[in-house]
Amino acid sequence: MTDILERSLKKAFMDQKIEGSLYDPQVIINDTKTKQYMLNVLQNELDTCEEFFFSVAFLTQAGLAALKTQLADLHIQGIKGKILTSIYLAFNQPAVFEDLLKIPNIEVRISKKEGFHSKGYLFKQKGYRSFIIGSSNLTMSALKINYEWNVRLTSYEHGQMFQDLQLHMEQEWQEAQLLTQEWISNYQKTYQPMTYTKKIKNIQEQSLTDEGIPYILPNKMQKSALNNLKELRETGAEKGLVISATGTGKTYLSAFDVLQAQPKRVLFVVHREQILNKAKSDYQKILGGKNEDYGILSGTKKEIQANYLFATIQTISKEPIMQQFAKDHFDYILIDEVHKAGAQSYHRILDYFHPKFLLGMTATPERTDGFNIFELFDYNIAYEIRLQEALEEEMLSPFHYFGVTDYEKNGELISEATDLKYLVEEERVTYLLEKLDYYGCSGNIPKGLVFCSRKQEAEALSLLFIKKGHPSSYLSGDHSLEEREKQIERLEKGEIEYIFTVDIFNEGIDIPKINQVVMLRNTESSIIFIQQLGRGLRKDSSKEYVTVIDFIGNYKNNYMIPMALSGDTSRDKNNLRKDTFDTNFISGVSSVNFEKIAKQQIFSSINRVAMDSMSELKKSFELLSNRLGRVPYLKDFQEQQTLEPVLIANKKASYYDFLVSIKQNEGVISETENRFLTIASRELLPGMRKQELILLQKMMSEPKKSLSLEEILRLFEQQTIPTDNETLNSVLNTLNLTFYTGAIASTYKGQSFIERIGNQVSLSPLFKEALNNDYFINLMEDILLTGQLKSVNYSSKEPLTRYQKYKRKDVLRLLNWDQQMVDQNVGGYTASKGEFVIFVTLKKGDNFSGAQMAYEDELLDYSTMKWFTKAPRTMKSPEVQKLMHPEEWTIRVFAKKSDNEGTEFYYLGEVIPVKDSIIELEKPIQDGGKKKVVEMFLKFLTPIDVSLYQYLEAGQE
């Protein structure tokens, strides 16, 4: 390692061209565009450390919360750390000291030093030390949002700089005071918080009248939506749909639009009586006027003379009630939670009334019952803001999501099949309370909403929580409106800590003071998940953030958790895996964290589930079809990010076949034409290389014209795609199908897209003939355009893009090999044309039967892989000789975690064998004998991305 560390120091301080490594000094600056944060670096250091020491002046509950899952996993491993902090400027609140005391593997001391303002993080790593020094305290703003400068350095333990830091911090530690409960109690008595104006952004902007009376102004989202609604009406539209995340102010928005539209009579329709009074109150704040202008129409009130009438759907949809109004009585009708409008009760009022303008509002317009909300509103989406955007705009309360491991009974995790008696036994309750206490909440006084899967479970758990000293209540659909409101009031007043619930509170309920959302149920759908998460996201001055604690058992639907949190509905397994091990996708000062075992439960669920089942693909098709008002094509799926186009295109022979199977094809093509679509879907649609797509698109635009090789090269240059003659030949071999061999060649036989005669390239006669069918042209162009959209994920300057996934044949094609090799012949590696490619399956499982010998390939660290040749091989074997002369070869490594991930491998980058590590040895084989193999260390020219490395090295699911 000595040479690597020396090289890193030279790279940093003498010559940037020197090969890098994990140990390179690193400048850390929060970057929201690339999603690179100080928080990630800290989490990565904690994940691999053997010991740590933080010296930070300021901490917040939120900043500490973002590290709690790492700290919990370290505790299981027996790894401890120290935190030295202070009471400088009274920044640190008593609540954060209480949180620190709950973390069992941290010892905390309080510095007595005047003006203590340090920000340093030291880690003992295996074989070296790392430390981060800079401007970031342990607050979420400093770790994710603020413009901060930090530097990460590495050292040996005996290095002078590390020794100086270690000595100084130890001295400060010895002089500091131990954090105890008694110390916190005393601090609380004398604590005077910093006096500064705290602005809760975007709860709702306010201003003052000339008389000094506050009135409400539209926030940023509302201003944009109001402008869109105004423009929509100016075009003559009579309907509009607003899609807006829970908590972003939809009711206020509708009131502002009523103010700008100036209707004489307004009907506001809700699905629950509980919401009416709040909606009425919000309207009065915006519109003003007399009390008698506002009325309620419900089971208990019939104030139908009001100009602004707030009605439940259950009441207004009754025939005798509707008949009391003329069809055009209301100029403006608003439907709240309009995704419910598929019900007959909604149909009745929408068929009866004829307003000048109809506004629908929802956070989740997607329906799986076939009803098309978009069609209901003439496909007029006036405004759309989803969870991630709302977090970026600071319209919602930040949240810290913790995916934690559920209770284990007799070695088995809670699952869908777990008997009720185990769900409600005292041991599980003790376990739940320990986790709730550890992950905590803003201010440490819980106001929590607990979602359960069964009524009996919710009721029993609420009683057991009370027994354990945590006042709680239980609500289900069986409880009256009055009882629900009573319990909500008790929660907000602090009389109870938790409401356990089933079937209600998924939507349409406003409890702004909720600071903890607890999920004790299997995730039924990503829509319901977001609805339940959203119950705590409304901003309130009583909380800094919301804690979401999701108890993850051995559930088949665990894969929906990363899907819901990231908003990625593509059903691409690789994306879901990435969103589980790399949670940088979450915006603002929120964070997503999974405990190690919970993370493995999600990976296991992803591996098991059939993402491309016909029912799921059909569901995704229908959702997009409803939004567009027409048959969606592959390009639509890519642009809307609603489904991975490759999944649906390759479910059957082609997307055309999929459309035929669900009777949605808008034309007919021949079997020959369909085979062209099949080949293009498999080989071109993924967009791994843009050249084939550009060339075929150009030639389709002028089917009778041939192109010279020089013209093709100029075409690529115009598209800023650097292309050499070898790449050009590879592109032509792909399109004339001569690259393919074996079973694939048999399948593709006779279906070449182009033919080459000398220097000229033209479309093949068969493909030209296919272009007589306009529907075929549309389907083929759809593939090419979608492939170009997907190509942005791949480098146009390098043949392969690090961390993308490739099949063996893709790798050989993109490296310009003349012909494909059958996968079995490639096996673990192959070499040609100066390229040596290695394919490794890291987690082969205990009963691996894919080879005679148990190969023990493994990643040793971010820069090193231990690797074995095939057997039998010796030092004199041709491939070993090649690897002993790496200057003549470009050696690339591709890896997948396990065979559960299919036939694709992550491209990890180029490597160089460590010559003095190459040894010949004998290993046992299955029949009891031994065979010779060669073992060596492979050094990556650039270290593997930390999050991907940790994913690949995580235990077998």
UniProtKB/TrEMBL annotation:
Domain (Helicase ATP-binding): residue spans on this chain: 231-383
InterPro entries to which the protein is assigned, alphabetical: DUF3427, DUF8090, Helicase/UvrB_N, Helicase_ATP-bd, Helicase_C-like, Helicase_Restrict-Modif_Enz, P-loop_NTPase, PLD-like_dom
SMART domains: DEXDc (SM00487), HELICc (SM00490)
TM region positions: none
PROSITE patterns for the chain: HELICASE_ATP_BIND_1, HELICASE_CTER
CDD domains: DEXHc_RE_I_III_res, PLDc_N_DEXD_b2, SF2_C_EcoAI-like
Domain Helicase C-terminal, residue spans: 416-598
Full protein name: DUF3427 domain-containing protein
Family annotation (Gene3D superfamilies): Endonuclease Chain A (3.30.870.10), P-loop containing nucleotide triphosphate hydrolases (3.40.50.300)
Lineage: Bacteria, Bacillati, Bacillota, Bacilli, Lactobacillales
